[in-house]
Amino acid sequence: MAILELSGVSKHFGAIEALNGIDLSLERGEALGLMGDNGAGKSTLVKIIAGTFPPSMGRIVLDGEEVRFARPVEARQKGIEIIYQDLALCDNLSAALNVFLGRELIRKIGPCRFLDRTAMNARAAEIFAELKSETRPRDLVKHMSGGQRQAVAIARTRLVDPKIVLMDEPTAAISVRQVAEVLDLIRHLKTTGHTVILISHRTPDVFSVCDRVAVLRRGRKVADKPIADSSPEEVTGLITGAIEGA
């Protein structure tokens, strides 16, 4: 049974049609590359899945149960985490404090309450080790590379062991070595049974780590097929409109 199914999902912002009749299905442990030009509807689609926007029409079924999220916290409670392109990290805090941001561990001594930094550092270290990342819990985020920042953002999602991780352009504007680190993190998520939706403009990244590719153009899905049955050239043609559909 699919872990996530979208049927006829559409989204309108006034007279603007951002998405039209999107059908999509994902299995547990599968990585889907979601591609398309700017304004194709990719971010709108993942924000609907993550509970930021309600769909104007259509159904979302998660683990066999129809869901309709009014707020992102409701999607998180059902096991859906999203990592935005800007990562939403606090540069002045350590990696561990960013991992636990909004979910801080508290230690009580009498009537006083303190942040349990020792416990948060220890748990963050365990998650970074699981992700095979060299990121250290006590390091400040402002001193980190792009790849290390992505590791912090991904580690934050692992606190609750989500079913689905949505990633918005995680390899944009970082070095080749850092891209390799992020792709390794995505591979690790797959091997641990997490479903991943990867928004990316980088065709090599999608073909490196994803099992399937879906292409949106002007709010409509024009392709959804296994990576093995497609090619970077075909995807480029689908994105630009040189190829109508596949």
From TrEMBL:
InterPro entries: AAA+_ATPase (IPR003593), ABC_carbohydrate_import_ATPase (IPR050107), ABC_transporter-like_ATP-bd (IPR003439), P-loop_NTPase (IPR027417)
Domain spans labelled ABC transporter: 4-243
Pfam families hit by this protein: ABC_tran
Nucleotide-binding found in the keyword field: yes
Keywords attached to this entry: ATP-binding, Nucleotide-binding
GO molecular function: ATP binding
Name under which the protein is recorded: ATP-binding cassette domain-containing protein
Upper lineage: Bacteria, Pseudomonadati, Pseudomonadota, Alphaproteobacteria, Hyphomicrobiales
